[in-house]
Amino acid sequence: MDSVAGDFVAPSSMGEAQARESYEAMTRVALVVGVSGVGKSYVIGRFAANVSFVHVQASYLLRQAKAELVARPVDREELRTGQVLDNQALLVEAFGKLRAVESRPIIFDAHNIVDTDDGYAEIPLEVFRTIDPYVVIAISDDPEGILARRNRDTGRARPDRTASQIAEYQSLVISLAERHARELGVPYHLVSSGDDEAFARGILVQPWMAP
């Protein structure tokens, strides 16, 4: 796999007692990843519309934070072709601010690998460790279906990829999601796009949600 090298530095840590109190008060977060065009935002949106979860898109948070920083609008394509790894500290900061004021559980719609013009940019584990999800879910679909969905979505710029290239990309995304979940010590679920029941089970069947 081609990769874009770089380092992510997490925010400074707090004292042990303060960290424990902060963790107990934190809003719970489910991390959902998948290749662009797999339909994860659609699956999340359908679920979040019927339960007391809030759907948060990493790209939206980052665009808003970066727009404030550079004092101009920022689009998705600029995020994909810009300094992907340098953006992660900004994303973590923006997410932390949202989490501090949001009491509902969050479904964090993100990418763990970004398909850039210079190769695949793997988002470091430390980014997701800082976000601290209770579960990692990867959404998958048939590569031909993803390609068709991308072709229909004319309002969004994406790199021109074949179905075989999308299949390779998706395989890397799924493998990394499983590895990140294992290293974070949280459950991992692979869910087919459109399988609302499997998605709900992955989100809801958690010890802290038990009666």
For the structure shown, list the relevant keywords.
211 residues; 9 helices; alpha/beta; two-stranded antiparallel sheet; 5-stranded parallel beta sheet
Describe the structure.
The protein has 211 residues and is an alpha/beta fold. The protein is 48% helix and 16% strand. The chain is built from nine helices and seven strands. The strands form two sheets. Strands 2-3-1-6-7 form a five-stranded parallel β-sheet, with helices on both faces. Strand 4 (113-116) and strand 5 form a beta hairpin.
> Could you tell me the strand content as a percent range?
15-25%
The low-confidence parts are 1-25
Total of helices? 9
Secondary structure: number of strands: 7
Biggest sheet, spatial arrangement of strands:
2-3-1-6-7
Shape designation: globular
Class based on secondary structure composition and strand pairing: alpha/beta
- Rg measurement, Å: 17 Å
- Mean pLDDT across the residues is 81
Distance between the termini: 44 Å
